[in-house]
Amino acid sequence: MSITSKFLQGVRRHRETAKQIKFKGCLEDYLKLLEKSPLIACLAHKRLYNQIMSYGVTTLDESNDRCHKLFDGETVKIYNYFSNHFFGMERSLGKVMRFLQSASMRGEESRQVLLLLGPVGAGKSALVEHIKSALEASEAAYTLEGCPIREEPLHLIPRSLRDEFAEQYGVKIEGDLCPVCRHRLLSEFDGDFTKFPIGQTSFSIRGRKGVGVVPPMDPNTQDTSLLIGSEDISKLDLYPEDDPRVLSLNGAFNVGNRGIVEFVEVFKNEIEFLHTMITATQEKNVPSPGKQAMIYFDGVILAHCNEAEWNKFKSEHTNEAILDRIVRVNVPYCLEYEQEVKIYEKLINRSDFDYHIAPHTLEVAAMFAVLSRLKVSNKVDPLTKMKIYNGEEIVEKGNIKKVDIKDLREEVEDEGMTGISTRFIMKAIDASLSDSTKNMITPISIRDALIKQVKEQIVNPEERKLCLQFLQKTLHEEYLSILEKEITKAFVTAYDEQAESLFNNYLDHAEAYVNNTKVKDKVTNEDMEPDEKFLQSIEEQIGIKGSAKNNFRADISSYMFAKLRRGEVIDWKSYGPLKEAIETKLVASVKDISRIITKSKSRDLKQQKKFSSMAQTLMDNYGYNEDSAEEVIKFAANNLWRDS
Ligand SMILES: Nc1ncnc2c1ncn2[C@@H]1O[C@H](COP(=O)(O)OP(=O)(O)O)[C@@H](O)[C@H]1O
Ligand SMILES: [Mg+2]
């Protein structure tokens, strides 16, 4: 079969199924359906909420490490509908869903605007887009046929019958017929509402069905017809002026009826323009463009904007009426660098991607982004804070007490509302790629690109200085330390075993020290004193000296004991600070050989062999290709292990 005829077959199938789902009937048929599934007459908030929930929810609970460390053990809901698309945003998503949930129960939230507030590139538009898509995937809604705003068929039922109806069906009817349908009911069906035809309508963003969008408008073109439609001048000749058939109900509130109305960068608009928002929420009515009565509106109103616009808007007290109608949800930037990496991966995968990304490239970029977003802490340095926010167990060099993430969070307010945006990073990735002759990006090239971009684009001198410091100093050092460990791993045979054995020894001796007991020698089986020199040789790697060692040893012993008691497995990576110490010790133990081997000039044959095998391991086990391995080894040789 040719491609075309195969495709056309698909087209036919598509049309068949599209036809199938369409219901056609009158009130009686609809009521029979309603009897079985009252949810078909649910209001917009509930439809949206149920649709998103239908993908499932899981909880990040105590047993999950990320939750345990970052959310302080509180149960965090993960909504499957969002989880593959949005990263490090659980808190904001939780608030959005809480809003929808209350609104779906017709709480006060159903009469409020949901405002997403956050810096540029924090994912507000993407989030709203994704929420709108949920509607597209939802089942078609029942509607009065031919209704320009696709209204609920139950509007046919007269007010006088509604109490009885609610009692019998358990469904509370809200809203009245729109002027167009009312006119049709009288003129075509002589007021017999049982005859009015009922059909189905699906949701479509592009088709403007159930999803209305209001872009920011400059004051001169702002026209309420964008919100509530207009009178069709060409029809004014055909019908009398107050005939609803002259109405062209194609404003955002008409289009978004039963679904979503989105206000993009909402406060860029003049305030007068937004008054419709008040009636739409307060009264669930919007004005009709002609001389008709108000039109019932049922929809989720989603708005988004950045902080500067919000502050300006908020400061004018004439805006109180609208402020009163707004539920604000902050959408800050992601502050966990490992989650931030996932954002870049998502965005990169979207473009046609056929280049090599060396290990740690996106990580370094993400670290920079997060560093720029964090507020200064009085308790720890920025890099340590960044790691704690990432859920790492870490202590600052020379410190022994771990700092609790909660304390850091409480220190500041509204974190993540400033700093480097996702787009800034993506631009640097593009730039570093187009500069590359080898079709790859590396931590080294991305850092160069970021430095260049900061110099070109960040005008605020303080911010610029800080950014440059992060890139040129903090991350330079951090990346070198990552790289040093990686190279060490790549040529220490049985790295893990060595680390594990250091770990076990350390624990044995530290525990004996803490409990004032002896250590059994594994070979001679003799009791001996804890080896103070050995313990210190590990501790000094992370700057623990003098009496600080007592606390450190006690902390580790009780930490490990608690873990074991919970039935968890412990290994050399279990306790962040000790892991760091062990790695640093291993790195130090091979410093000399690292230096000789990575410097190409001084290699002899045996060393050459060792070098090749190390480079090969980097490629086989650590995700490098030949070019990137070469580049990072050269970088290490020039920056680490300097001949002293
Ligand atoms: N936390 C996040 N998770 C996933 N993607 C994100 C996140 N933050 C930003 N993005 C992505 O970054 C890009 C820019 O976001 P956008 O929605 O345009 O931001 P905003 O509207 O807040 O200015 C989008 O492609 C979005 O998917
Ligand atoms: Mg946006």
- State the shape: elongated
Measured by DSSP, the beta-strand proportion falls in 5-15%
The number of distinct β-strands equals 17
- The strand line-up of the biggest sheet is 6-9-12-3-13
Structure description:
It is a single chain. With 644 residues, the chain is an alpha/beta fold. 51% of the residues lie in helices and 9% in strands. It contains 28 helices and 17 strands. The strands form 7 sheets. It has a 5-stranded parallel β-sheet. Strands 1-2 form a two-stranded antiparallel ribbon. It has a two-stranded antiparallel sheet with strand order 4-5. The radius of gyration is 32 Å and the shape is elongated. 35% of the residues are buried. The mean pLDDT is 89. Bound molecules: adenosine-5'-diphosphate (ADP) and magnesium ion. Magnesium ion binds next to α7.
Write the layout of secondary structure elements.
Blueprint: H1 3-20, H2 27-36, H3 44-53, E1 57-60, H4 65-70, E2 76-79, H5 80-83, H6 90-104, E3 113-117, H7 124-136, E4 141-144, H8 159-169, H9 179-189, E5 198-201, E6 211-214, H10 225-228, E7 230-231, E8 247-248, H11 252-255, E9 260-263, H12 275-282, E10 285-286, E11 295-296, E12 300-305, H13 307-315, H14 320-323, E13 326-330, H15 337-350, E14 356-357, H16 361-373, H17 382-389, H18 405-411, H19 422-435, E15 440-441, H20 443-457, H21 461-491, H22 495-515, E16 519-520, E17 527-528, H23 532-539, H24 548-565, H25 576-589, H26 591-598, H27 605-622, H28 626-639
Parallel strand pairs: 3-12, 3-13, 6-9, 9-12, 14-15
Antiparallel strand pairs: 1-2, 4-5, 7-8, 10-11, 16-17
Helix pairs in contact: 3-6, 15-16, 16-20, 16-21, 19-20, 20-21, 21-25, 21-27, 21-28, 22-24, 22-25, 27-28
The structure holds adenosine-5'-diphosphate and magnesium ion.
